[in-house]
Amino acid sequence: MGTSRWERTHARLAACAINLFDAQGFENTTVAQIADAAGVSEMTFFRHFATKEHAILADPYDPAIASAIEAQPPGPALIRAARGVRSALAQVPTEEIENVRRRLRIISRSPHLRAKSVGTSGVSEAAISAQLAADGAAPIVARAAAAAVIASLSTALIEWAESEREPLTSMLDLALLVLEAREGASGDD
């Protein structure tokens, strides 16, 4: 089944935004420039994204993370969350990896976007917490596990985005091993 006109326009706007943010910086890019590059009006841009920030901060992987956590075998909430995140991110299509890195690099280099990304991390954290609670974890345990996983994930993603050679799985494993308290987690091997 093909994509709808709305989906194609949405993807084109997001791609144009990222290209412009990468070329001239987030702060130096206007909505008018993004709309023009995508061949649409500013009104169309705002039908797809509430703000310029939303064109880069939207996280399409939250539902996949919650599903991957649900699929984990019973066990401690923190371990299930860490393994679920690892599993979900391993499913990111290979052709998308460099786009994810580029998006994260833009976010990490903009103080405004870094501050705004805390809000989107909160959405991810809430999704993880809700799944853990739905699976039987006490609410405080679910929230603490979700917060710890999001902190580790955020650290790994920013480190990976700034790295030119490290694979995502390596950075993610290093960060999540700390939470899973497995041998070698200290990084002193």
How would you explain this protein's 3D organization?
By secondary structure, the chain is mainly alpha-helical. It has 2 domains: 5-55, Homeodomain-like (Arc Repressor Mutant, subunit A, Orthogonal Bundle); 59-180, Orthogonal Bundle (Tetracycline Repressor, domain 2), CATH 1.10.357.10. Helix content is 73%, strand content 0%. The chain is built from 10 helices and no strands. The radius of gyration is 18 Å and the shape is globular.
Task: Kindly state the percentage of residues in helix.
Answer: over 70%
Q: Report the radius of gyration as a whole number of Å.
A: 18 Å
Number of strand segments = 0
Kindly report how far apart the N and C termini lie. 49 Å
| General form | globular
Largest sheet: none
Q: Beta-strand level of the residues, as a percent range?
A: under 5%
User: How many structurally independent domains?
Assistant: 2
**Rounded average pLDDT:** 88
CATH architecture of the largest domain: Orthogonal Bundle
The ordered H/E elements are: HHHHHHHHHH
CATH H-tier superfamily of the largest domain: Tetracycline Repressor, domain 2
Poorly predicted runs of 5 or more residues:
183-189
What structural class should be given to the helix and strand makeup?
Answer: mainly alpha
Query: What is the fold named in CATH at topology level of the largest domain?
Result: Tetracycline Repressor, domain 2
Query: What is the CATH top level name of the largest domain?
Result: Mainly Alpha
- The number of helical elements comes to 10
